[in-house]
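Write out the 3D structure for:
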Amino acid sequence: MMRQEKGFTLVELMIAVAVLAVIAAIAVPNYRDYLPKARATGAARELFTEMQLARQKAISRNNDYVITFNTSNDSYTIYNDADNDGPESGEEVKTIYIGDHYKGIGFGYIACNNPSGSPIKGKVTFTDDKFAFRATGLANKAGAVYLIPKEDIGASRKDRQRGLTVLVSGRVRLYAHNGTTWE
C-alpha cells in the first residue's frame, strides 16, 4: 500500500504568496488614503459630541459652558462658567489636543465656500475663537470650525476636510466636504 503525503507543494505555496502580494499591492494604497479621512472624521465627531455635551450641561446646570479654540496648537478647551462671566482659572473642564487623539489632524481648511455658500474666512470663525452655550441651550454667537489632515493643506485636497457649524439656536451640525460641495 502506498503512503499518501499530506501538505502543499512548493508551486502551490508560491501561487498563494503571489496572490496575497497582488491583493496587498491593491489594498495598501487605498488604506493609506483612507486613514487621514477617517482621522478627520473621528476628530470632527469627537468635537461634535463635546459641543453637544457642553450644551446639555449648560441646560442641566443652569449656567454657561464656554468652548475656546487655540488654532496655534490645535486644541480646544471647555469651561464650566458657573458665574456666567466668561472663562476663568478654575473653571476649566477639559482641554483636548486634536493631534494627540488623531495624528496629523488640526484646524484648517482649503479655500472654498462654507456650507452656506459664502467663502470660508478662517479655521475658526467664532469671534475671539470662542463661544458659549447659555443655560437656555442657545449659543451666544454663530460660527464654524474646520478640521483637515495637515498634509491636505498644501495639496489643496478638499474631500477630507470636515466642518462644524453652530447656530445661535444652539444647533450643532457636522459637514463633510466631498471635493465639490459640503454634505
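The beta strands are 64-70, 75-81, 92-97, 105-107, 130-133, 143-149, 162-166, 172-176.
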